[in-house]
Amino acid sequence: MTGTGSAAIAVDTNPLRATLVADTARTVTQRMPLEGGTLSAIGADGSVYTLTVPNNALTEPTEISLTPLGSLAVDGLASDAAYGVQLGPDGAQFTNYVTLTITPPPGASVPVERQLPIGWSGENNTVALAALDPTRRETSLKLLHFSGYALLLARQGTNATLEPARHRLGGDAEARLQSLTAERLLQERQRQLLGQTPAELNLDDIFKAYDEEVLQPRIAAAGSSCAAGRLAIQTVLGRSRQRQLLGYPDDAYSQSALYGDIMVQATAACTREEYALCRDEHIVTRMLPYYLGLSRQAQLLGLAGSPGVADPAWLQDAEAATAKCLNFELQIDSQMVLTEGSDVDAHTVRESVSARVPLPFNLGIAFYASGGSYVATSPAAVPLSSSGYSVTYGHTCASVNSTTPVDATVWGSLGFTARQGGVAQRAEVQDFYLTPAVAPTGLGSSYSVTLSSPRNPTGCEQPSTTTDHESWVTAAFPTWIQPFADPTLAMAIRDWRIVGGDVMATKEFTTRSDPDASENVTVNTQMVLFHKPAP
Which CATH class is domain 18-200? Predict the structure, then answer.
């Protein structure tokens, strides 16, 4: 026995467990946008599972799946039928209730007094009662997180079925207390739908035990780690949502979660841990989704996004940490060889250019969607330095008088995609995409050349001196456009070699002019992307 409230409970060491087989052939998956939506799946027996997500439940677009079950049994809860579904991603959390409606197959008889809603979670599929919406006749569950859920057709009625197994529902204090709440809601719903006199629904004792056995220990540990902080916030907000659903007013715990020490401590721990991963392990894929999710949560809770109202300090701290994390520098080195002309005019131009381009985080262009982030852009153009500018003519009637190398300017934007799959995979960069832009200074690098007409039998005559502007900017950069054309970004250099660490990625490529062009241009380019998080 634990706790001091009147609903203090013992946690059984042998909780009920579900044995199930998922019908994966009937899985339905949909990427749910922030605005929410509806997703349905149909079981082999004709049962229908419909998930409704409101527009204030998600902090980021989420890939959601519904997998009907081929079979389900719970040893200890005798049933004549089971209509179950596994929701994914398992463990997903929501800032407001999503609704799962379970509709039995057409023609199935499911009397109200035999309806038994359950959920299961964890590696052992530990079973607890699930809370039905007491205001609706259809079987609708209000959920703040994902696991597996089902409607059982109890063989002997719900009360008789639960009596010998009640103490085995839920594998911890939280699940036990949630089962107690769900049972009282179930009883009240049965009374209403069967036309019986409703009883006063008093859950004060359960809330008191929940606060003592679950909430208060989690609040005390909120600042110890990000995981503990998130659990504390989820626990307080879940409790607040349930009180609202049941007609109970908010209290000091709810206010503290939104405006007080709990949110400050929890977000400080998460921001600290996320930034440490970025700074020390060079994991750059997590920081922006973390910040944007936190920002979205603040907006849903009414704490950010209002004109003239400053964001809370903990959100500003997360934004600053994101800017410190997503800071990059790009080294560009490129060499051009241009050949053109014939006879006296046959010549070769060589020019090498280099630049070090800072790419700091830019919140104004940052976005995160479908695993891709577009996060950094040059604050200003930087010099694209010309070196080794040389021009050679092979004919004796041609002479180069002078060469004038001129630096250009370069800037750009950087994004990346993250690998899909488990948490460890999502932490890895799949690829970068760079959108560069180059501009000449004046007309760019140039040279002065004197060309004469050959004279028979020997010598040259009629010399003419001209200045030509053939440079890396005018001849080499255009060779990048076609190979890296992108329908969305105009140009995107992709397919980087991911290194990780301080040297985040490298890219080497050779581009050439169009075969039909009057000049033959070959460009060899080397790029090195450095991760430069602030201390």
Answer: mainly beta
